[in-house]
Amino acid sequence: METSLMRSANGMETVKTPYLSAQDEKTRLSLECALDKAESCLRFAFPRSGGILQLAKQLATEGLLEEAYPGYYARHSYLAPLSPRGRMYHLIRTLAYRHPSWTFCLYSAAIIHGLQVPYALLSKAHIGVGSLSNRQSTSCYARHVLTSPTSTIINGIRVTPLEATVFDCLRHATFRQGLAIIDSALHHHLTTLERLSNYAKANGRYRHGIAKVWQALRYADERSANGGESTVRASIIELGFMVPELQVEVPDPLNPNVTITVDFYWRLPDGRIIILELDGLQKYQRDDGGKPLTLDETQQVLADERRRESHLNLTGATVVRLSYWEAIDDLKLEEALSIAGVPKQA
Fold it and tell me: Assign residue 209 a region: left if phi > 0, alpha if psi is -120 to 50, beta otherwise?
């Protein structure tokens, strides 16, 4: 069977479709154009005319095109490398393009502000409205009454101000999820703990979830390097253990001119030192786009980690190493820290 090709904007992808009539060929070219434009603008295509939409649905059914969200399409080669955060960013940009007057709030605003939002919170976009009378939601987005009537525009997208965004996220998310968001706001120096606390004092009276806001403000720490470390630290806190120091530089006993920065560090009253090192999947990916390392590169990373751990052991500290997935398993984390001797909070 003769075929025509659907090419991505960079010319890398070819998608085979059955031979088309002149009219169908025009429809195909229109869909290609829509996909190309969407990719160049970091958006998804949203065909509305009958013929183009029908073709997009047909290609999605046949696995030749991806329906990223209901009614929003992308080529597989473009969509596949996107993380859940990247996909949500594209959805927000698409919705903002279609509805320039919309104000994004909660986790959607947090993404646009550049905050670390746990993937579990990225199932749909979040739109702010002024009253309860306009709260219709869809499979792509949910509506919420705005805490703050003001908004700001970032990269052409209208969002709630940063302090209002963090405040709303902390009220709605769990403590573990919220700590990752507030830590990232402080880590990237987008705001200060004082400004966030003042906003909570001014806007938190009788607000649902305000207790979670104050809990997150109490434990927020700008030294947290990423959302994963924040989530694990929240787990440590909720399990009742002594709060660790973060990103402590430990002298390398085999190289006095070098220090090793560790993830979690406990200095006990009796002088003992306990270190928790968190393995991350990012260590087995390249920095340029998250592509997996080759076998030789992975072996080198593992060798470097073993060397790093052996040097830490020579300091006399008790060193615990856990994967991220082990560290967010409460039973495994509590067992590991208890055996290591991390005390519970008084």
Answer: left
Q: CA 330 to CA 220: how far, in whole Å?
A: 20
Give CA–CA dist 192/186, Å, rounded.
Answer: 6
132 to each of 143, 144, 159, 231, 274, how far by Cα in Å? 9, 8, 19, 33, 51
Question: Quick one: average pLDDT of 164-184?
Answer: 97
The dihedral of CA 16, 22, 27, 33: what is its sign? positive
CA-based nearest residue to 160, from 267, 168, 94, 96: 168
The partner residues of 321 in beta bridges, in order of sequence, read 277
pLDDT classification of 1: cutoffs 50, 70, 90: very low
Nearest-angstrom CA–CA distance, 201 and 196: 9
The pLDDT value given to residue 294:
60
Nearest to 190 by CA among 246, 247, 113: 113
SS3 assignment, position 68: strand
Tokens of 172: 């709605």
The dihedral formed by the CA atoms of 215, 218, 219 and 222, expressed in degrees to the nearest 10: 130
Q: At a CB cut-off of 8 Å and minimum separation 6, what does 19 contact?
A: 1, 2, 3, 4
Question: In degrees rounded to 5, what are phi and psi of residue 82?
Answer: -75, 135
The predicted model scores a pTM of: 0.83
Q: Is 59 helix (H, G, I), strand (E, B) or coil?
A: helix
Residue 299, pLDDT above cutoff 60: no
**Sheet of strand 141-145: strand arrangement:** 141-145, 125-129, 103-104, 157-159, 152-154
